[in-house]
Every structure is written in structure tokens, then in C-alpha cells.
Amino acid sequence: MQPYIYKKRRFPVVTKYYSVPDNWWEQTDILMNFTTEALVIARYDKKKKKTAILTRIKDLPNLRLATECMLKKAGITSVEQLQAKGSVCAYQALQKFHSNALNFALLWALEGAIERIYWSVITPQRRDELLSLLIHTNSTNTVDYVFTELILMQR
Questions:
Q1: Total domain count, the chain
Q2: Which of 31, 82, 117, 151 shows the smallest number of beta carbons within 10 Å?
Q3: 70 and 10 within one domain
Q4: Which range marks the domain in which residue 132 is found?
Q5: How do residues 109-136 score in pLDDT, each as one tens digit?
């Protein structure tokens, strides 16, 4: 079986997708063998990915190159530094360099990156804890900002 390949900006991109030959739909034993093998490989890849040592911030869940650049500008240059500082301190460092133009989605993204989970699965209780930490470790300006941001989120 050949992987599906498409072109992006004139360069071939090899995917992990495969086309199932038409005759396999009638030969269910062959189809089941390949799907079972594919599932085993996918589970192995997932486990390997979860335990992999990530060296670039952009490789963490929820983060991309732009976020990595913002964090570098704020003095956080490695995954280890981000994990050591924590999401709230990293968010505060970003606020210093990017004023108050940040929203809480970035705070959730940083927390998710550190925990290696997608930001939307961070529980409301944990989000409240993060906001509380942000308010109590920052100045009055942040309290006003947080209050304004919460009002805007409710609209």
C-alpha cells in the first residue's frame, strides 16, 4: 500500500493515510488484519508521542511558532523553562512585552502545553485557579483587566 501524497507549495507531503483497495471490501479477513495492525501501530505512535522529549516550544500542544517567538522575547527559550515557570508566570512575562493585548485563551493554551493536553479540556475549576493566581500575583491593573476580559467573555 502506498501512502497518500499531496503537494503543498510545490513540495510533496507524505501522509499516514492509505487508500483501501476495492477488492478488500469483499475480503473482510484481509481488511480486518490490516485495520487491526493499523490500530496497534497508531496506539504505539500515540504512546511514543506522549513520552517523547520535546525540545521546541512550538512542538507542545496548543502552541505554534508565533507563541514560541513571543515567549523567547519574554525570556522563556526552552520547554524546560516554560515548565519551570508555569503557565501563570509565563503569561505574566508575555504581558510585560505585549501589554494587555493577550486573552485568556493563551493562558489556557500555556497550561495545556505544560500538561500536554488540548486547552479546551482544562476543567473550569483549573481555569478558575489559574485566574485566581493571576489576579493575586499581579497588580491592580491586572484585576481591572481580568474583570474586563471576563465581562467580554460573557457576551
A1: 2
A2: 151
A3: no
A4: 57-154
A5: 999 999 989 999 999 999 999 999 999 8
Structure-block grid coordinates of residue 113: 502545553
The percent helix, strand, coil of the chain (3-state, each to 5) is 65, 10, 25
Give me the residue label for grid cell 483549573.
126
Element at 16 (helix H, strand E) = strand 11-18
Provide long-range contacts, Cβ within 8 A and 24+ apart, for 123-132.
130/87, 130/88, 131/104, 131/107
Residue from 99, 75, 103, 100 nearest 89 by CA: 75
Both 72 and 44 in one domain: the answer is no
Supply 28's cell numbers: 473482510
State pTM to two decimals: 0.61
63 and 44 share a domain? no
